[in-house]
């Protein structure tokens, strides 16, 4: 069993930020740090003091993390980015909000004395003697100290204070991973000082030394314990009273910490088997457990439950059957065809999750070129006459201002071009669409035809498909391409308007150009001819999409787990030179990399023949590299063994913080079950005759920092974690147990009444009765597991709580 921690983060918006540019505005973005390590960077919102981001992330972490901090920055093209302020939430603070922290938080000034990180390795001993006892403090080493100098490192030394006396270690130049191995002794007397303070500092030649953190110990407790040794987290100095809140603006956040104790796989098998049986029985099942889960799941957690169930059934090869059951349930309670799949039901939410998991790569292939073109052209586009701004489009060839009608016509031409390109790409993509998506749409189409067979409803099966494909997949991706990983940055105001109008046009096509959709916004009329053509194209596309041979559909049953071989791909720069000389940017060569479930490979171009670089089973660690090593903060290292069993390291450079963390996350996930994973590594490089990080001269020396193999970002193409999904579903069922038991009593009463009148029949509550037994068994398994799991930190009893 294992304890899993995750943070669900939504960075909503900021307000009343201070102006950092001479224009009286700012270009704000956010950086999210977990224990001072940057893991997320939002897009920059240009020229505003009230930015909106609306970005969501989920981060998987070890339970030992301490805090998450949100730094609001101002991007500058010609100088170092300015720090506007920060919001810091400790693990204890987040744990106090079972349903998550949500709201506005004031930004506070970033105080250098509070910007500490890292740990220090100490050994503390009380030495007996014939007279006065002595306190011995051995300062061994430190790791992950904050870089305070321009070169991306520090020059650390340690001061030890006790009873009015201070002793210092030597200075280790240019290192955030220093090793001292120095010992100091102090006389111990009854009633003398009760606190031993160990402080880390960065030495500076011409300015004041920078504070790196401290640890304070309770000496009376040490007197009783006699000896203690371990790694101790460096703490900041006391907050300065002059730090003010409120004048730096505010940040709206939603942060939810979830801790789950995941039991061994065998514990979840009865629950998984029960749910799978219900799905296989479909609507013929006596208990209809899935229907009861749907009816009793609240709106606010329906998306999460839908995603968990979908992933569970993906792992069991039953995703299509699960979705088919939900289709039947919704069709069974829908009498009006025009309301079909328009609510946020479990069917709609599950299908949304399914399309993102199964069709994201397909979506990129269709939309990618069109979205790129819109961003690159930056044309002014507006169809609403009340919003047209003539001055934004300049003059016509006759050197006279354009009329609103001319602006609208030019805008319509641009949108017709984009919409036509999108529909053409869609029409050509039938074979590119993942087979499992085609099979699911075919089942949906068939079920709707059975439910609404009359001629007056001939468009309803098509609209059912487009309600997911267009309204819940293509259109949201067009409106917010960054959230679907189509672009790295948010669109500016002009591009956003173009994307919104294009998304509206796609929605009109998806609605099959109904009179209601046409009347909703009459100013969309200039696109009417293209929309009409698009409806015919879309119907033809759907007809071909759902035309799957029965044999082909049966063959798909083995592919429903959706574990595509390709995990991640994209351009990276690989370090190709060897030797002791200086490492320049020219030593990196750009190649196209592909990570599959077997190996990390590269090629000159995406279509070139690939050469295997690292076999997946040989990966031992994937970690960041210190900025000073290559002059870049976006370099990662993959430590692996070659075919001869010899340790090797590959250095790969990414173009941004987010790309770096996404690649690290993907590599860590696919290698998490490898044997021989490293617990420590060197964040620097072996240059000349020593490691640049800790200055050790043995190349095979044990790493000076701990690996972070459990720090990952959740992505839609993540490998399925069957046990975690089962645990999350168990947790949800536990929350609705009382409601289900009440339903169980109602069903049992109805069954008894039916037996008296009609004779014995199948017991409709059998599925629920089995579920309650499964829940009881899981409760017992959890209660017998270690309740607390790993400690939140190495919290020594000798530390003085301040």
UniProtKB/TrEMBL annotation:
Localization of this protein: Cell membrane; Cytoplasm, Cytosol
GO molecular function, one term: phospholipid binding
Chain spans, region Disordered: 780-802
Chief location: membrane
Topology with respect to the bilayer: Peripheral membrane protein
GO biological process per UniProt: cellular response to calcium ion; intracellular signal transduction; negative regulation of Ras protein signal transduction
Residues in PH domain copies: 565-672
Record-linked SUPFAM superfamilies: C2 domain (Calcium/lipid-binding domain, CaLB), GTPase activation domain, GAP, PH domain-like
UniProt keyword list: Calcium, Cell membrane, Cytoplasm, GTPase activation, Membrane, Metal-binding, Repeat, Zinc, Zinc-finger
UniProt-listed PANTHER family: RAS GTPASE-ACTIVATING PROTEIN 4-RELATED (PTHR10194:SF4), RAS GTPASE-ACTIVATING PROTEINS (PTHR10194)
Name of the protein this chain belongs to: Ras GTPase-activating protein 4B isoform X1
Organism: Trichechus manatus latirostris
